[in-house]
Design brief:
By secondary structure, the chain is mostly beta strands. The chain has no helices and 16 strands.
Length: 197
């Protein structure tokens, strides 16, 4: 509400007022993540400005939501679902928006690798190792390698987009354990551990 007071030369005043109202405006609606595996959850959210600042939310379908009447419910869909939110302010103004959550089919991943030991470098006192995960199957996004000595102490942790790891290890790490974790685009993982020597 804007108010104006006009005063003339004789001191007589006249008052007027005008109300300017900002309409309800939804700025964003989201699902994080937008793609889940069966049994996983996602966080729905919406950002709203304008109106009178009092907002009521109603999400649908409500069956797979933690609470359909809050701004950011947790969704647990069993199939791909369009979630719609209707936002109403204290003036009765409302608007709606929809976000799509995809339930991806269960991912089949198989982790497998082989390794090759090179000769000892007599100067650097290192052994060249090649770990090859090309035999792994599935929609693989990354290859995570965790190498340890036989006593369990970590030698190397590395994540790569390629299946082959070439590394020079000190001759004191002539044997140990290698763990490969492959990760799919949707976050599914598979792991295998082998002793190397």
């Amino acid at each position: 509400m804007y108010t104006v007071v006009a005063t003339d030369a004789d001191g007589v005043q006249l008052t007027g007022a005008a109300q300017v109202r900002v309409n309800l405006l939804m700025t964003a609606i989201s699902a994080t993540p937008a793609t889940v595996l069966p049994g996983q959850q996602t966080q729905l959210d919406t950002a709203v400005i304008g109106g009178d600042g009092t907002y009521n939310f109603l999400w649908s379908p409500a069956a797979s939501l933690s609470d359909p009447r809050i701004r950011n419910p947790i969704a647990s869909p069993t199939v791909s679902t369009d979630y719609t939110v209707v936002v109403t302010n204290g003036q009765g103004e409302s608007l709606s928006a929809t976000v799509h959550v995809t339930v991806a089919p269960a991912t089949t991943l198989t982790a497998a690798f082989s390794f090759t030991r090179g000769a000892l470098d007599p100067v650097a006192r290192t052994i060249h190792w090649t770990f090859d995960a090309s035999a792994s199957t599935g929609p693989i996004a990354t290859y995570g390698w965790h190498l340890t000595r036989t006593d369990g102490t970590t030698v190397l942790d590395i994540v790569s987009a390629t299946p082959v790891l070439e590394v020079d290890l000190p001759e004191t790490v002539a044997r140990g354990n290698a763990t490969l974790t492959i990760t799919a685009v949707n976050g599914a993982t598979a792991t295998i551990t082998q002793a190397f020597r």
